[in-house]
Amino acid sequence: MSNDVLTVEGLRVRFRGQPVDLIDGVSLSIPAGRTLCVVGESGCGKSVTSLAVMGLLPRRSATVTAGRIRFRGQDLLGLPEAALADLRGNSMAMIFQEPMTSLNPVFTVGEQVAEAVRRHTGCSAAAARDRALEMFRRVRMPAAEKRLDEYPHQLSGGMRQRVMIAMALANRPALLIADEPTTALDVTIQAQILELMRELQRDIGTALLMITHDLGVVAEIADDVAVMYAGRVVESGPVAQIFNAPQHPYTLGLMGSMPAIAGRAGRLLTIPGAVPVPEAMPPGCRFASRCPFAIPACDAQVPPLVRGPDGHAHACLRAPLEDHVGQDRTGDDRTGHDRTGRGAA
Ligand SMILES: Nc1ncnc2c1ncn2[C@@H]1O[C@H](COP(=O)(O)OP(=O)(O)OP(=O)(O)O)[C@@H](O)[C@H]1O
Ligand SMILES: [Mg+2]
């Protein structure tokens, strides 16, 4: 019925020794050729979610306690490890934040890309090298042919990230997960890499799950956005909706951290406080203790993710927030909605 390449439904992940599921009912989907950006502050579970999709969670410490992960209709959680390994690097690829940890220092980068091609296609060594060279050219690796025979440490950070992209896309994956792929790079290189990923994605029709904490990257590349907070998706929808009509107080807070967007949305918002730790996870909305709009009900129940007809979904008992902002929207006292107002609201 759908052309979603990836569907995650009600995913829950628990780490050993922790009293609650850290990933607590995450649902996401990405159609072919589209880009979903997953945003949220450090520790909210972006990487854990993507590792779960790739089947790369540490087996000894992490357990998927509930949910489904479907890749082109196939249930990944039910797949044996060997079948998952066949998908990885082939129809499902991932780019990590720090390429040095994913590249092997003792092989040339050309060998590594060629090996990724050979492993999944069984083609000859010469054909795999040709393909590696072709990919190096496509990712605009400077002096592509010479670079094939160099080792990771001989390349700059931007070149290593190009190697990772070349390797990830060499087998034309249906799904690419990119976890902060440009964070370590300077701004010019970052823009080039994003443009490159977009171009290759257009050509191949890859569904892209892009993890970033950079709203500039989101504005640049996203079709859809999922905002995560403490292991839950608190808001999701088309990028324009998330930027122009955010519904969850946490999203409002995030927008406030990006001046260009905040300029459009109104005054800056700051979010005092910190993310709850697993040992003291509140039973209701995990954002409630930091939320200027919270009421007692927010502490008592987990707000369901409510999806509108336009695909915009939010998990906030207080939405739409306009009702509670009132004159403060134009005044200068928006953050005056603190916990002291809870009983009255
Ligand atoms: N192996 C592990 N054992 C216990 N807890 C873990 C483990 N790996 C991750 N966590 C916890 O899971 C939470 C989510 O981590 P995750 O790496 O997914 O965050 P993130 O959203 O990717 O953050 P960042 O933006 O910093 O990369 C964190 O609180 C982290 O401490
Ligand atoms: Mg991470």
TrEMBL record:
Membrane topology according to the record: Peripheral membrane protein
GO cellular component, one term: plasma membrane
PROSITE patterns: ABC_TRANSPORTER_1 (PS00211), ABC_TRANSPORTER_2 (PS50893)
Record Pfam families: ABC_tran, oligo_HPY
GO terms classed as biological process: peptide transport; transmembrane transport
Family to which this protein belongs: Belongs to the ABC transporter superfamily.
GO MF: ATP binding; ATP hydrolysis activity
UniProt keywords, alphabetically: ATP-binding, Cell membrane, Membrane, Nucleotide-binding, Transport
Region Disordered, residue ranges: 324-345
Protein name: Dipeptide ABC transporter ATP-binding protein DppD
Domain ABC transporter, residue spans: 8-255
Annotated localization: Cell inner membrane
Taxonomy of the source species: Bacteria, Pseudomonadati, Pseudomonadota, Alphaproteobacteria, Rhodobacterales
